[in-house]
């Protein structure tokens, strides 16, 4: 289980099975060529409930969820996972 908190304060828990999901790897690979795959990456990584929490966490006062903010949060989560693998 990967647990953590991003710099913005989003607390997450990701089951090992989600991190080892081949479909997640496929979507990450597709995302590199097509940024429109980001929602699928987020949902496969976090699941529906945590994805909703992340969007609410990042929602602006205008009710919008900035794409770049979602991307930064997911990148930070992956960086944390990479650090843990090395230790």
What does the largest sheet look like?
2 strands, antiparallel
* Helix/strand class: mainly alpha
Report the β-strand fraction as a percent range: 5-15%
Order of helices and strands: EEHHHH
pLDDT < 50 stretches? none
Looking at the structure, what is the overall shape? Answer: globular
Compute the number of strand runs: 2
Give an account of the 3D structure:
- There is one protein chain.
- α2 (22-33) packs across α3 and α3 (38-58) packs across α4 (67-86).
- The longest helix is centred in the middle third of the chain and has 21 residues, at 38-58.
- Strands 1-2 form a two-stranded antiparallel ribbon.
- It has 87 residues and is mainly alpha-helical.
- It has one domain (2-86).
- It has four helices and two strands.
- The two termini are 15 Å apart.
- The model has no long low-confidence stretch (mean pLDDT 92).
- Helix content is 66%, strand content 9%.
- It is globular, with a radius of gyration of 13 Å.
């Amino acid at each position: 289980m990967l647990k953590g908190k991003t710099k913005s304060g989003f607390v997450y828990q990701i089951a090992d099975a989600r991190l080892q999901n081949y479909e997640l790897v496929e979507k990450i690979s597709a995302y590199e060529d097509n940024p429109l795959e980001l929602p699928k990456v987020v949902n496969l990584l976090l699941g529906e409930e945590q994805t909703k929490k992340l969007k609410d966490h990042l929602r602006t006062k205008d009710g919008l969820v900035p794409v770049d903010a979602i991307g930064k949060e997911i990148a930070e989560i992956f960086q944390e996972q990479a650090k843990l693998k090395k230790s």
